[in-house]
Design a protein that fits this description.
8-stranded antiparallel beta sheet, 13 helices, 28 strands
């Protein structure tokens, strides 16, 4: 999927003894968006934007050790080892011959190294240059910045597609706002900026600018533009779209004191697990302090300053915990951390309350299971059938206000809450609207300049597409049975042509598939190792559609 950007120069940070200037270069191919002001909370902004950088460059995927050099050395040594092995069984002449051959081999290798030395030196210099001077090659997509009437916010996504970051700053962060125009744009964000951000000081006047002049440069100065074309994997874009949809799902919510998060990070820094299980288990009892257990050590951390105020007891397991270290820089600034847990093995969100700023860290179920493959909810499937006229009315209403709660927007437009929620859900999936979990409002945010190809982004695997097609042809009757202490058992009979399939699923209280079976060939060959078959997915989707219809 090709993304085109055209920046009016480069984002720059200028620093002197008395002042610092931040000038972000926006994408000139998009509608003009700009902001000019002076920072008031300088250190807090520096730490928050640095944490956002940690999300941008984050990549915790398993990287196997490079054994190329060892294999080359072993291949060279094979002849030496063979000669040494045979040396003890030969006569004196044979030993002399072997010694001579070893000398010849050593001379050849020495000559080879001498000839290839300039190549090795140039290769090492090139990679050193890339590492120190051109780290931008590792940043897949430049962050998205949105200017709204009440705040400005940055959004970014990690390289491994498992971590989402959002930094929101209301206008109290600035002691002077000279000019701004609302909208969304991509900004040129280079890796060297991180080092420049560290030069921000409280005693220096700091100018903050999303440069409006980038939109006024004449074509005769075309050489000042920086053109960037990035071919992104569909899974990367699809994952970005799923984040806001995941935020709208029901979640277990509680607050953590900054010292509790410090204790989490301190333990993760001090110890490195060498075997599984590797998860955090939140033990939540109403009216009691939150208890967190780190496995495989069984280490319990009692969050005595953080009391769980929920209505029922529960335990939730979260994987990919080392991504929480991104929050370390925010601990001295945070008043509290609000945690949203969607369930065991499901995505989680951590919102740092930084006063006039807020930082949202969104984590997929575990690092290897990125946002585009989170299988416990199909965020790209349509959630409601809304008339096009109503959808256009809702989008126009949100465009006028820039941000709004569902109930407020429904009241302003004279529509039902269900219609507005359904329309906003569709626009969220299309990348035109995002959900602000911190303020519980929908915000207008165009992820890309051109409409996204939803036909490519809708399904994360072929079985999802087959299940959707199956539901357009027939509507199976799904039987639901509640099993005490286990969860919900779904069963159905699906007849396709001359074949009849009998899928079954057992879903626990966290909406996870615990067990399942079907008499189709896909299940017989793969069981659940490659996920549920299309018949199981169709049954579950049909059950979800039926439940939503009953509620409305």
């Amino acid at each position: 999927m090709l993304f085109n950007y055209k920046y009016g120069g480069n984002t720059t940070v200028t620093s002197s003894a008395l002042a610092t200037g931040l000038s972000f270069a926006p994408d000139t191919l998009r509608d003009p968006v700009f902001f000019v002001g002076k920072l008031q909370h300088k250190i807090a902004f520096r730490e928050a934007i640095s944490a956002l950088h940690d999300v941008v460059v984050s990549d915790l995927r398993f990287k196997p050790k490079d054994k190329t050099a060892y294999k080359e050395w072993a291949a060279q040594q094979e002849a030496v080892w063979l000669s040494e092995y045979l040396a003890g069984y030969n006569e004196t002449t044979a030993e002399a011959s072997i010694k001579l051959l070893k000398q010849e081999i050593a001379e050849v290798r020495s000559e080879k190294d001498k000839l290839l030395q300039p190549f090795y030196k140039a290769k090492r210099k090139y990679f050193d240059y890339l590492y120190h001077k051109d780290k931008d090659a590792w940043i897949v997509l430049d962050p998205v910045i949105t200017v709204h009437p009440d705040e400005m916010f940055f959004e970014c996504f990690s390289q491994d597609e498992s971590t989402y970051g959002r930094l929101g700053a209301n206008y109290n962060v600035f002691k002077e706002v000279n000019d701004f125009k609302c909208g969304t744009t991509n900004i040129d964000y280079s890796a060297d900026l991180y080092n420049e951000f560290q030069k921000i000081r409280d005693y220096k006047e700091t100018d903050f600018k999303v440069d409006p002049s980038g939109f006024e440069v004449q074509t005769t100065r075309e050489d000042l533009f920086k053109e960037v074309k990035i071919d992104l994997p569909e899974s990367w874009v699809r994952g970005f779209l799923q984040v806001s949809s995941a935020m709208t799902l029901p979640a277990t919510r509680f607050d953590l004191h900054p010292m509790d998060v410090h204790n989490f990070c301190s333990w993760l820094r001090r110890f490195r697990e060498k075997k599984g299980p590797r998860y955090i288990r939140y033990v939540l009892n109403p009216g009691e302090p939150v208890k967190v257990v780190f496995e495989p050590w069984g280490k319990e951390i009692i969050c005595s300053r953080s009391v769980y105020t929920g209505s029922h007891k529960q335990e939730i397991k979260i994987w990919g915990r080392r991504r929480l270290l991104i929050l370390e820089r925010l601990i001295p600034l945070a008043k509290k951390f609000t945690v949203h847990l969607l369930g065991t093995g499901m995505p989680s969100f951590y919102i740092a309350d930084l006063g006039d700023m807020n930082f949202t860290l969104g984590l997929s179920g575990w690092t290897a299971n990125d946002w585009s493959r989170a299988g416990n909810f199909d965020l790209m499937a349509p959630r409601a059938i809304i008339d096009d006229a109503i959808k256009a009315k809702v989008f126009a209403g949100l465009s006028k206000e820039w941000y709004a709660e569902t109930e407020q927007l429904a009241q302003n437009l004279g529509l039902s809450t269900a219609e507005v929620a359904g329309a906003l859900g569709i626009y969220t999936q299309a990348g035109r609207v995002m959900f602000d979990l911190e303020k519980n409002v929908y915000r207008l945010r165009e992820l890309s300049r051109e409409p996204l190809p939803m036909d490519k982004l809708r399904f994360s695997n072929p079985n999802e597409e087959l299940a959707s097609e199956l539901l357009t042809q027939l509507k199976p009757v799904v039987k639901a049975e509640t099993i005490s202490g286990v969860g919900l058992k779904l069963s159905a009979t699906i007849k396709i042509g001359k074949r009849t399939y009998n899928p079954e699923l057992v879903i626990d209280e966290d909406e996870r598939i615990k067990t399942g079976n079907c008499d189709c060939s896909f299940y017989i060959e793969n069981k659940l190792y490659k996920g549920p078959c299309e018949h199981m997915l169709a049954m579950r989707l049909q059950y979800g559609n039926t439940k939503r219809t009953e509620k409305t």
